[in-house]
Amino acid sequence: MSSIKHIIENPIATAERQISRRELIKRGCGVMAGASLAAFPPMGLLSRASAQAAKTKAITVGFVTSMSGPVSSLGIPYDQGIKAALAYKPDVAGNAVRFIALDDASDPTNAAKNARKLIEEDNVDILIGSAGSPAALAMATVAAETRTPLISIANANPQGEPGAWAITVPQPALLMIAGVVEHMKAANVKAVGYIGFSDAWGDLVYDALMKVAPTLGITVTSNERYARSDTSVTGQILKVLATRPDAVIVGGSGTPGALPYLALRERGYTGKLYGTHAIINPDFVRVGGAAVEGLIATTGPVAVFNQLPDSSPTKAISTQFAAALAQAVPGASPNAFSAYSFDAWVIFADAATRAEGQPGTPAFREALRDALMSVRDVVGTHGVYNFSRASRYGNDERSRVIVRLQQGSWQLVS
Fold this sequence. Notes:
The protein has helices at residues 2-9, 21-32, 43-53, 72-88, 108-120, 133-146, 160-163, 173-186, 200-212, 234-242, 259-266, 282-288, 315-328, 336-354, 362-372; strands at 59-65, 97-103, 126-129, 150-152, 166-168, 191-197, 219-220, 224-226, 247-251, 272-275, 296-299, 378-379, 384-385, 401-406, 409-412. It is α/β, with parallel strands linked by helices. The chain folds into 2 domains: 2-170 and 319-396, Rossmann fold (3-Layer(aba) Sandwich); 173-299, Rossmann fold.
């Protein structure tokens, strides 16, 4: 409760506050019940916003991530990235920003409940979240039902009406898997085994692999699955190894994504290891240890921004992101996941400059949705974003690099 108390006691006149004393106390209770306390911006951000609030109504942003549970190894970096974004751009298009964050505890049902609470009780203009594909899809359903725009920071591709109200920041699986399979081809891999999550992300990776691998003469020998909360995949790994693959690719993410690699090494597997952009975070490297040394994966350029040439379109903003993160979360290291939420804010800020209407109204939410769907050439840390109604993924080849894990750090391959 000390952080809330600090905000309340900050000596700024009540009339200048963006959030009233009563509301802060109310939100303090809500945080204790499951909201992300760490995600509240420091008082400096609130006070800067207060001056703008007198001029125009604040835009309200609802943020959902996973600060606890099996997806927290991704959710915590997402939280850090949004803090960096708030330090980098605390107000948007001349409007103050009212920011509310909630923890879904790695549960898609909670993510949907949080989304509905933010919309119905807090009247948010836009949603950003959450840390896993199932949770993001759950939020997309609520967003469409309530006609509220959503920026998904997990890799999700909602279909039908939910897709009409959502855009996705992470690179599409097909784009990233194509890069991995091209590397396999160059490394003379003829057969690759697959094991992935038994959820939407596992499906996206497998479907992309099946679209690309056969066209390059590579056979996919297995399709084994496991739950994010599983503690053993020995049975699945034995089935993968029985197919005698030249390489294995895992469709997992975060720390649960390390489990198959650990099991492979325990069984003496010495073949090539591949992964996706969903495992590029420090906790994956920490948990995987020696078992993931040498792993090849695709990721956004921000993961190795210090190794990029100065001509890279994303290097300058990645450097700014690293500085903002150091300011907002001392000791935090830039990584792909904190960069996704940072980019979500950059995209939102661009759209807000073009959305007409009064924040807090259905007309403004629709205008903001339309503006998101027409983002053009917005440079972020992961790439240069272009969205349309026909393409809810905004990335192209500029958002993909190939990296290898060497001595615990990611090194640029190409």
